[in-house]
Task: inverse folding
């Protein structure tokens, strides 16, 4: 079990889905947690606090809209003020929209690039100085298999995730002689609200719910099983461990065989 007692982790988009699963794994390992996300986070904070109480960790929440660089800066300042800085940054926040390129709404393109790509840059550039000063840090970007392959209708998402992997490589190189590492995790299908909506769209066309889920997985993911948030959380813990200290600038697939095809 990786022990992260005394380390502080910021996970963007962590009040549900993948981000919450990662946050819970980090809390179990003893890290202080800064959650980020919209809406009432009280239930999530209570859930993380229950884990942290067992390990002596601390939990906070910042509601920054990560499409806004000024709000990201305020969140990093909050981390420095209340937690003494960030040791582990998990850039997870993301949104999706599906449409052909010629019909893709410009405002949706801009918002997806801002949240899925630009926020990774801003959070990273603002966190790196503190990590360098401490002499240790982990930056983990939640990319996607769509950072390495395309899918019809997902121009903005695919472009953003390809960008995340490119940024990961650059930061990995720029920190290569330090104790700061930067890597990307590339999940396949995870049963998040974004993916559930795609299943629901199939059900709305009269397809049986189990068949709709099977058909979605069968198109891309040979295992016919979803990747789970706890599995992603365990991979984050590995990258935070000493065993992961020479994994640098990598794009790590966890996709049920999607990219093996």
Result:
């Amino acid at each position: 079990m990786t022990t992260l007692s005394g380390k502080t982790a910021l996970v963007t988009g962590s009040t549900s889905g993948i981000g919450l699963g990662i946050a819970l794994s980090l809390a179990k390992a003893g890290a202080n947690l800064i959650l980020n996300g919209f809406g009432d986070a009280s239930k999530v904070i209570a859930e993380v606090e229950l884990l942290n109480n067992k390990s002596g960790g601390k939990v906070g929440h910042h509601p920054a809209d990560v499409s806004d660089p000024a709000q990201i800066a305020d969140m990093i300042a909050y981390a420095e003020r209340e937690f003494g800085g960030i040791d582990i940054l998990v850039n997870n926040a993301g949104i999706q929209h599906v449409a052909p390129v010629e019909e893709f709404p410009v405002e949706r393109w801009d918002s997806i690039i801002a949240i899925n790509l630009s926020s990774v840059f801003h959070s990273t550039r603002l966190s790196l100085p503190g990590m360098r000063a401490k002499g240790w840090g982990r930056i983990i970007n939640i990319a996607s298999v769509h950072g390495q392959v395309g899918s019809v209708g997902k121009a903005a998402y695919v472009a953003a995730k390809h960008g995340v992997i490119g940024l990961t490589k650059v930061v990995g190189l720029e920190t290569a002689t330090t104790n700061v590492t930067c890597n990307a995790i590339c999940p396949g299908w995870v049963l998040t609200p974004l993916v559930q909506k795609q299943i629901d769209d199939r059900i709305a066309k009269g397809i049986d719910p189990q068949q709709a889920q099977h058909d979605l997985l069968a198109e891309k993911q040979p295992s016919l099983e979803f990747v789970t948030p706890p599995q992603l959380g365990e991979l984050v813990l590995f990258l935070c461990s000493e065993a992961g200290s020479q994994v640098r600038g990598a794009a790590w697939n966890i996709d049920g065989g999607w990219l093996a095809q």
In short: Residues 191-226 form one domain.
